[in-house]
Specification:
GO terms for molecular function: DNA binding; N-methyltransferase activity; site-specific DNA-methyltransferase (adenine-specific) activity. It is built from 22 helices and 40 strands. It is α/β, with parallel strands linked by helices and about 800 residues long.
Length: about 800
């Protein structure tokens, strides 16, 4: 309706204007369903760098951007214009005018190099920051990467009524604007329509963060624009401190929409406990893992020869191969380099047998019923889920929350010594590292100072991306509401973790914010002036952060203090804990023993099994019990046999008043059980920076006539470089009849009469992937590319000009 209101205001006949307004008000009373909002006049963009010519649309500097004039004629100091809302002709001072670009106008963009940072000279990978209105930048990106983007992550303005944090038609939108919701939806709809063209329809994801002010509107808009996609919204806690609100609940979270296209799904990742369960051990039962090695009667090799086969395990505790049963008389498995062949040999050296045949083992490992304990140094133990326990999982008695490194099922509440679970999490995230204060504001302040409010937690963005691009080491990621630059920072961290070459494109405007505007305007400083532009978010926040994080220094040139959390882990060996109990009376009865067990269980993080009889020691195969006690040291042999395979036991209590005996028993247990392997996160020093490169461009606009006459090749180089994959450092000049840049995988033929020489030179450079040919003749172009079939080829300037003309016509 806002657009209609503006059109009605142009009606000169006051009576007719009033009647139309009354009729419109009557129509508005009709009930509408679904996502219905007032579409607004296209938002305009000031382009002070564009020269004013006859036919240029302009506005009065510091006036209303919706009040547009078309230039009819020019002198050195004045412009004769027609005011489009009234069609009145006026003469205006040329110095008071600024050119505008309107959404929907035909544009011919170029990228002006502003700066670059290079910390990986041997790498072809270059990230990109584009300073631009994101609508026009998206138009350019469709020309470059239509259908090629793997992931779009955006954090658009939340449209808070008490915060002037975004503009429509160059005016801030706040709570006093009755059209603020429809303006926000108009703004988002226009950009999401173009963004959809960028996403790979076969496998890609759009990730959008939002809070409660617009999440329901956004959800409807996404369903309308992406009817073929699967859309899921998750809730995430970003502020555990909880921001109090008068008359309402405090705010501690926000929402993330995931729009999944094609075959895209979140991948199982190794996650910490807080990702997969907030329940903890509130139930008493646990899945029981039994030993694969048979015990008791019928446990010898001779009882079942088919159960004597090797299981080959590597140093990372991964089962690589399940062998066949060894022939009678053969007791040693074939050696395979780098693998340990585990056979069912008993402690006394005699030959035992596995409970499953080799075929059954392979089948049930696929089901998730096999896991490995121990390590290369102290030996391995294989655990299995028998049918009864497995059926408890299938029936839902125990909930599967992930898979381990050998595909073993991990259930909620089970004891996982690594602390990691291979899983896809639920839709409510309460992750400590997603705290936007600690890992957003404070982290950013440590790099560039207090230049930006409310950045996202680096790890919140990192994790959202990781579910979809961890398996895509060469993914292309776009953020067209890039703000402070968290997305590129997160992509660099992902690449550092796994050696990936993911490339990130960021787009942000260079708004300076209302407080700074009020400070500069009275001084006569205006948009386009260097003193104005240097305070903008692209130049004052995003680019400094990008440079500093890559180089590992803060804005003052000092090393950044602190460590990055990563998704990587490392294993550390720790000693098991032993306690001597020398005060216990000899010949103690069951009552005394139960009292001692009860006393020990009062300690934190220690749990002995319950005594149900007068026993000589307590050992449980249930991995919820991490402690064991030996009441009678003379039964050490039986005790050691009972301990075998129970790697989950980390705390031992030995009852003896003799120190020498205690030390001897401790040594025997230590030799059997070995050290504890604890998996801990790997951190990375921030001062080390990232092996990465990035370049900073500002989007501008070219004159179509100059492009068509071939005068703008120099200005188009960054676009041609990006279209070819942004490999190597962006070239800066073009000299000669043709150029070949192996480091960029690009070649350009400027003069078609030199084609034969050009083609011969191409044969010397197998690195070339993309060829640009400058010619006005379509027939000549088709003839030349017939000899260039191994390359991606484009005709200049036709390809460039037609793209933007056709895109305009399709609107």
């Amino acid at each position: 309706m806002a657009a209609i209101d503006q059109y009605i205001e142009r009606i000169a006949d006051e009576s007719l204007r009033g009647e139309i307004q009354m009729e419109l008000a009557r129509l508005m009373k009709k009930k509408s369903f679904g996502l219905v909002f007032e579409h607004h006049m296209p938002d305009n963009l000031l382009t002070p760098e564009v020269p004013i010519r006859r036919g240029t649309n302009v506005v009065i500097r510091n006036g209303k951007v919706s009040d547009v004039y078309e230039v009819q004629s020019l002198t050195d100091t004045e412009a004769t214009c027609v005011q489009l809302s009234t069609m009145n002709e006026v003469v205006l001072p040329l110095a008071d005018l600024v050119a505008i670009a309107q959404r929907g106008d035909v544009i011919y963009p170029y990228l002006k190099p502003m700066d670059s940072v290079k910390n990986a000279p041997d790498s072809e990978l270059w990230h990109t920051l584009i300073e631009a209105d994101n609508y026009h930048a998206l138009q350019l990106l469709v020309y470059l990467y239509a259908g090629q983007v793997d992931c779009i992550y955006i954090d658009p303005p939340y449209n808070k009524p008490d915060s002037h944090d975004w503009k429509y038609n160059c005016d801030y939108v706040d709570g006093t604007d009755s059209y603020r919701h429809s303006k926000w939806l108009s703004m988002m709809e226009a950009r999401l329509k173009i963004a959809k063209k960028l996403l790979n329809p076969k496998d890609s994801v759009l990730i959008v963060t939002i809070d409660e002010l617009e999440y329901h509107h956004l959800g409807c808009l996404l369903e309308q624009l992406f009817p073929e996609a699967r859309i899921q919204m998750i809730s995430t806690m970003i502020n555990p401190a909880n921001v109090a609100r008068v008359g309402g609940f405090g705010r501690s979270g926000e929402f993330i929409f995931f729009v999944l296209l094609g075959d895209c799904t979140p991948h199982q990742l190794e996650l910490g406990r807080e990702w997969v369960s907030s329940k903890g051990r509130t139930h008493t039962g646990y899945v029981r893992w039994d030993l694969l090695k048979r015990s008791g009667l019928g446990a010898s090799r001779s009882d079942s020869p088919g159960g004597f086969y090797p299981v080959y395990i590597d140093r990372n505790n991964i089962i690589k191969l399940v062998g066949e049963p060894l022939p009678p008389g053969i007791s040693k498995a074939e050696e395979i380099e780098g693998l340990y062949p585990l056979l069912p040999i008993r402690k006394d050296g005699s030959e035992g047998r596995w409970q499953w045949t080799s075929d059954t083992f392979r089948e049930r490992q696929k089901q998730g019923r096999v896991k490995i304990g121990g390590n290369y140094k102290k030996g391995y133990t294989i655990y299995i889920l028998k049918d009864g326990e497995y059926n408890k999982i299938l029936s839902g008695q125990f909930r599967e929350i992930g898979r381990g490194p050998n595909n073993e099922i991990i259930t909620e509440g089970s004891d996982n010594h690594s602390g990691l679970f291979k899983a896809v999490p639920g839709d409510i995230w309460r992750i400590s590292s997603h705290d936007s204060t600690q890992y957003g504001s404070r982290l950013l302040n440590s790099i560039i100072g207090s230049r930006f409010s409310f950045p996202k937690s680096l790890y919140a963005v990192h994790d959202a991306l990781r579910f979809f691009i961890a398996n895509k080491p060469n993914a292309l990621i776009l953020d067209f509401f890039a703000g402070s630059g968290t997305t590129l920072h997160a992509v660099n961290l992902l690449n550092k973790e796994d050696g990936g070459h993911r490339r990130c494109i960021m787009v942000t405007n260079n708004e300076i914010g209302e407080p700074k505007e009020k400070e500069l305007i009275p001084q006569g400083i205006k948009p386009g002036d260097e003193e104005w532009e240097k305070w903008g978010i692209a130049r004052y926040v995003n680019w400094p952060r990008t440079q500093c994080s890559i180089l590992g220094i803060d804005i003052n040139g000092k090393p950044i203090e602190g460590e990055y959390f990563t998704s990587l882990t490392e294993t550390k060996e720790l000693d098991r804990k032993f306690t001597q109990i020398n005060f216990f009376p000899a010949g103690a009865n069951q009552k005394h023993k139960k009292s001692l067990v009860s006393l020990i269980n009062k300690q934190k993080e220690v749990k002995l099994p319950t005594m149900t009889a007068d026993v000589l020691f307590l050992v449980s195969e249930d991995d919820s019990y991490n402690a064991s006690i030996l009441f009678d040291v003379t039964k050490i042999d039986d005790y050691l046999e009972a301990l075998e395979g129970n790697d989950h036991i980390t705390n031992f209590y030995i009852v003896t008043d003799k120190d020498a005996t205690y030390r001897q028993v401790k040594e025997e247990i230590s030799q059997l059980m070995g050290k504890i392997e604890e998996t801990v996160p790997v951190s990375m020093s921030m001062k080390d920076g990232f092996k990465a490169n990035a370049t900073f461009f500002k989007l501008g606009f070219l004159d179509k006539r100059s492009v068509a006459r071939g005068r703008q090749l120099q200005e188009l180089l960054p676009i041609l470089w990006m279209k070819a994959g942004a490999k190597g450092e962006c070239p800066t000049n073009v000299e000669g009849e043709f150029v070949i840049w192996p480091q960029n995988h690009i070649a350009i033929l400027k003069k078609e009469s030199c084609f034969r020489q050009f083609r011969n030179e191409l044969d010397k450079h197998p690195e070339i992937e993309v060829v640009y040919i400058i010619t006005d003749s379509q027939n000549a172009y088709l003839t030349m590319i017939d000899e260039l079939r191994e390359f991606r080829t484009y005709q200049l300037y036709r390809d460039y000009l037609e793209n933007f003309r056709i895109n305009y016509a399709a609107k």
